[in-house]
Write a structure and sequence with these properties.
32% of the residues are buried. Strand 7 and strand 8 form a beta hairpin. 0% of the residues lie in helices and 48% in strands. By secondary structure, the chain is mostly beta strands.
């Protein structure tokens, strides 16, 4: 069973930047879509952004557009979430997710994804 490992979370101040990384346990892992979700205390898990692995097409949640960027390193099979101009509202546990099949799905729904990381905490102080 492939596992996704996130790293890069931490405590930062408002206005700071942070980069999260997500790498699969198997180098041959071939996702169809890679995504980042976040879950704040008492709230549901929501889509932050996602990347179509073959085309590079990205999709972002409105509140992070222009501040967050998803990128990938094909050689390392790693996906990144670069977060800029962080605000306290960005505080959450961030999860990496992967979908491996095409089919019919809603890209922004957590139900579309087969594999999940353990989550990494991002805390933004004001």
């Amino acid at each position: 069973q492939v596992q996704l490992a996130e790293s890069g979370g931490g405590l930062v101040q408002a206005g700071d930047s942070l980069r999260l990384s997500c790498a699969p346990s198997e180098r041959t892992f071939s996702p169809y879509v890679m995504a980042w979700f976040r879950q704040a205390p008492g709230k549901t898990r929501v889509h932050v952004g996602s990347l179509m692995w073959n085309t590079g097409n990205t999709l972002y949640e409105d509140s992070v557009k222009g501040r967050f960027t998803i990128s990938r390193d094909n050689a390392k099979n790693t996906v990144y979430l670069q977060m800029r101009r962080l605000t306290p509202e960005d505080t959450a546990v961030y999860y990496c997710a992967a979908r491996t099949s095409i089919g019919t799905y809603l890209r922004t729904s957590w139900t579309a994804y087969d594999y999940w990381g353990q989550g990494t905490q991002v805390t933004v102080s004001s």
